[in-house]
Structures are given as structure tokens and as C-alpha cells.
Design brief:
By secondary structure, the chain is of the alpha/beta class. The protein has 2 domains: about 270 residues, Aldehyde Dehydrogenase, Chain A, domain 1 (3-Layer(aba) Sandwich), CATH 3.40.605; about 180 residues, Aldehyde Dehydrogenase, Chain A, domain 2 (3-Layer(aba) Sandwich), CATH 3.40.309.10. About 40% of the residues lie in helices and about 20% in strands. The chain contains 15 helices and 22 strands. A 7-stranded mixed beta sheet has the order 14-15-16-13-12-18-19, sandwiched between helices. A 6-stranded mixed beta sheet has the order 9-8-7-10-11-21, with helices on both faces. Helix 3 runs antiparallel to helix 6 and helix 4 packs parallel to helix 5. The protein is globular, with a radius of gyration of 24 Å.
């Protein structure tokens, strides 16, 4: 059985930890990919030491050359995409087509960041003094701790690693323990791209042991986390207590507003993919539909027709429409929320149970679920479920729709379906989300656009786009006096 290894100081090394867990295929628990040894605090500290020791030389490497290494890693990820995607599907459960899409996004982000190695520009600023030049320059911060979740085990690590490395920081990386094989394959791409020893290090383990060691280590100067709100806010507090930078992307409860003038076929297609793609296990998944009464029944009739034809099963099969939840714990969470929805009076239209086919008998599957007549005070309206559960909220007016969409502590992404340009722009300005879409799903994003949310979805600077480099760099102001002699009188 394969035992997944840490990567410290340029070498893959087996952990000396005593706790072990199996890496299991969530679509078929009889399929064991390997074994994970949960690493110790000492191993996490050793990774930080390696990154700290490598920082000075990596910082001195010109940014275009750092970018070239990241670009080479992107090329290798592309060449190995089939192997990485199949591994990702086996250990995480999303469809192979979705895994391939995730790999492509990782490549796009790597290429965008690699090119930015030639654009880490400062600016020349006019000064009041004669014969004096002022300009700014960008410098790396230091050791960056990157803590990533299981639901996008390729794209999210890359959209943290690539800018951190190009900017000149060294990295300690904690992948999710549920997806170690994907993380190991990504690491190998960077190794084969020629990344110097110690610049990128990986420790597989728990948040309590590894994550906290990273955040508390005196040599770590910035932390980037993606995961639950409770853990993210805890990390942000720990980082603040040390006076270091933190960037935390957390929960989502993303609404789609469907107006009475919407193209219903377009809206159905967007909600279907947003709610049930990746088994609802995306921070950008559509979890709420806020719809005007006049079109609600027609919309639901079309959506239910699509849901009734879905094939639930092996995510490696091309004809499968939805795979499993990632593990038994996540499946239990989904089933518990379904019971909460029933008990609080929501009307169950479809799903709410587990499929009974032979193909799904050994996996963590749940049928796509839709609740109608959901109120904004219900838990299924306000709390992140992270599963294929969709809540329908019926409203009379567009004003009521905006109020319902905003009546949630989260604010990652959202969407509106309307043919009315004035409604669309009013929605853009009044919706309380960091990302918004008009006549398209809540999903998606491009490498050159910033990613992040409002309210309890995120704290700290945005990820992706050019803005991410503000997080991974320091700005230094430089004054050069070229008079060559002492100035008379007041200098300022």
C-alpha cells in the first residue's frame, strides 16, 4: 500500500507520526488508494525551518526566473493532467470531467502568475527636492503558510503557491488529509520544474498539529487559508496576535435571483450546474434560489425534469452526472440538514435520501435534493451544507428578492437572471457578495480576476488576479539623492 510522504528541504520523507488513516475512494470504499500518516508538530516545524533557510537565496533570484520555474511546473501539470485528474476523482469523488476542468484552471492560474514575474513593478514618484529620485519596489514577505481544503485539491493549492513563489516567498503547504495523492503529484511537478530545495515544502496532517504549528511559528510571516468559517476566523485571530498577514476564504451560501422576465431555460441550466455540480461541494455552489412567484412553478417544473434524469454513480464513468460526498462525515452532515429542513417546515420536492442502486452501495452518495417554500429564517437557508441541497425561496417583488438574497451571513458569489438592464445593474450594486454574475451560474472564475467574498465569507486581501500580489509582497519606498554634496538649508 502506498504511504504518502511529506516533502521537506527538497526530499520526500515518510512521517514518523503514530496516527494513520486510509485514503479511500468515496464512490467505492472498497477501493483504497493508500495510507496517510498524520505528521507531528516537530515535522511541521522542520518544514518551516527549511523554508526559512531557503528564503534568502530564493528572494535574490530574479522574479522572471522564478516565474519561469512556475511556468515549467504548469507545463508539467498539463502533460500529466490525465493522471492527476483520475487520482483527484478517485480520492475526492468529483466527476472526471470536473477534475479535468479543475486541472485546467490550475494551469491557467500558474501561467498567469508566472508571467507576472515580469510585471512585479513599482513606480517612479515625483519628489519635491531637486536632484532626488523616488520610486517604489516590490519585495517578498518571507515564509508563507498555505492551508488548503479537499474540495479543490489542485486549483486552490496552485492559486496560493504560484503567486507566493513568483513573488519570492518560500512556502510551507498543508493539503487536506483527504486528498494527499493529488497534493503529492502537484509537488512532483514543481520538483521536476527545477524548484530549489526548501523553497516549497509539504506536510500532511491535522489542522491542530500542523496548521497551528505553521501559524504560530515565529518564522512564518503570512498565512493563506481556505476552509470553514469557524477555523478561518480562529486562524485570523492567531495571525493577528502575532502581527502577521492572513488571508482567509471561508463559507458560502450563494443565492440566485430569478426575476419574472428571466429566460427560464437559461436559469434552469445555470441553477442545475451550480447546485449539483461537484455534488454541491464547492464554496461557489448555488444553494439558494430566490424566485418571483409568477415564474416559480414553471421554473421548478423544468428543473425537476432535469433532476429526475440524473445518473448518480461512479464519477470516472463518462455518463455519470453526479458523484458522492467526500466521506462519511460529510454525508452525515448533508443528511442531517435534510432532516432539519423537513422539521422546520420546508417542502421536500425531490431527493432527501440515498440512492439504492448496486453502483452506489459502497459509496457516500445522496440524491440531489430540492426544498420549496423555504423561509429566510430556516437553517437550510442560512447555513452552509456543502452538498447537493437546493432551497427555493418564493418572493413577490425584486426588492423582496434582494432582501432575501442578502439576509445571510455569507457573501461569496451570486447570480441574477433577468432581461431588464436596470434590474441587472441595480442588483450588481446592491448584492452583498464579492463575486457576482448576470445570466450565468454562481460558479466559475478566471485566473486574471480577483476571487473572494464579503461578510463572514472572507477576511484579508483577495486571491487570484493581480490583487493577490499585494498580499504576497511588501512595498519598499526608495529615495536617491544624486547631488553628491551636502544640501544647504531645510531639507523638508
Amino acid at each position: 500500500m502506498q504511504v504518502y510522504k511529506n516533502f521537506i528541504g527538497g526530499e520526500f520523507v515518510e512521517s514518523k507520526g503514530s496516527k494513520r488513516i486510509l485514503n479511500t475512494n468515496p464512490a467505492d470504499t472498497r477501493d483504497i488508494l493508500g495510507e496517510v500518516i498524520l505528521s507531528t508538530k516537530e515535522e511541521a516545524a522542520a518544514a518551516v525551518d527549511a523554508a526559512s533557510n531557503a528564503f534568502k537565496s530564493w528572494k535574490r533570484m530574479p522574479a522572471p526566473k522564478r516565474g519561469a520555474i512556475v511556468a515549467k511546473a504548469a507545463q508539467l501539470i498539463g502533460e500529466r493532467r490525465q493522471e492527476i485528474a483520475r487520482t483527484l476523482t478517485r480520492e475526492e469523488g468529483k466527476l472526471l470531467s470536473e477534475a479535468l476542468g479543475e486541472i485546467q484552471r490550475a494551469i491557467n492560474i500558474s501561467e498567469f502568475c508566472a508571467a507576472h514575474g515580469r510585471r512585479l513593478n513599482g513606480e517612479v514618484i515625483p519628489l519635491e527636492l531637486a536632484d532626488n529620485v523616488g520610486y517604489t519596489m516590490k519585495e517578498p514577505v518571507g515564509v508563507a503558510a498555505l492551508i488548503t481544503p479537499w474540495n479543490f485539491p489542485a486549483a486552490i493549492p496552485i492559486w496560493k503557491m504560484a503567486p507566493a513563489l513568483v513573488a519570492g516567498n518560500t512556502v510551507v503547504f498543508k493539503p487536506a488529509s483527504l486528498t494527499p495523492a493529488t497534493a503529492e503529484l502537484l509537488m512532483q511537478c514543481f520538483v521536476d520544474a527545477g524548484l530549489p530545495a526548501g523553497v516549497l515544502n509539504m506536510i500532511i496532517g491535522s489542522g491542530g498539529e500542523v496548521g497551528n504549528t505553521f501559524v504560530d511559528h515565529p518564522d512564518v510571516r503570512l498565512v493563506s487559508f481556505t476552509g470553514s468559517t469557524d477555523i478561518g476566523l480562529g486562524i485570523y485571530k492567531r495571525a493577528a496576535s502575532r502581527g502577521i498577514r492572513a488571508q482567509c476564504e471561508m463559507g458560502g451560501k450563494n443565492p440566485v435571483i430569478i426575476c419574472d422576465d428571466a429566460d427560464l431555460d437559461l436559469a434552469v441550466a445555470g441553477v442545475y450546474s451550480g447546485a449539483f455540480g461537484s455534488s454541491g461541494q464547492r464554496c461557489t455552489a448555488t444553494s439558494r434560489v430566490v424566485i418571483q412567484h409568477g415564474v416559480a412553478d414553471a421554473f421548478l417544473e423544468r428543473l425537476l425534469a432535469k433532476v429526475h434524469t440524473m445518473k448518480i454513480g461512479n464519477p470516472l464513468d463518462a455518463d455519470t452526472d453526479m458523484g458522492p460526498s467526500v466521506d462519511a462525515s460529510q454525508l452525515k452532515t448533508v443528511m442531517d440538514y435534510i432532516e432539519i429542513g423537513k422539521n422546520q417546515g420546508a417542502e421536500l420536492l425531490v431527493g432527501g435520501d440515498k440512492p439504492t442502486s448496486a453502483e452506489t452501495a459502497h459509496g457516500f452518495f445522496v440524491n440531489p435534493t430540492i426544498f420549496d417554500k423555504v423561509r429566510t429564517d430556516m437553517r437550510i437557508h442560512n447555513e452552509e451544507i456543502f452538498g447537493p441541497v437546493l432551497s427555493i425561496v418564493r418572493v413577490e417583488s425584486f426588492d423582496e428578492a434582494l432582501d432575501a438574497a442578502n439576509s445571510c451571513e455569507f457573501g461569496l458569489t451570486s447570480s441574477v437572471y433577468t432581461r431588464d438592464l436596470s434590474r441587472a445593474f441595480r442588483y450588481i450594486h446592491e448584492i452583498e457578495t464579492g463575486i457576482t454574475h448576470v445570466n450565468s451560474p454562481t460558479l466559475g472564475g478566471e485566473a486574471q480576476m480577483p476571487f473572494g467574498g464579503l461578510k463572514n465569507t472572507g477576511v484579508g486581501p483577495r486571491e487570484q488576479g493581480t490583487e493577490v500580489f499585494d498580499f504576497y509582497t511588501e512595498t519598499k519606498a526608495v529615495y536617491i539623492d544624486y547631488t553628491g554634496s551636502k544640501r544647504e538649508g531645510k531639507l523638508y
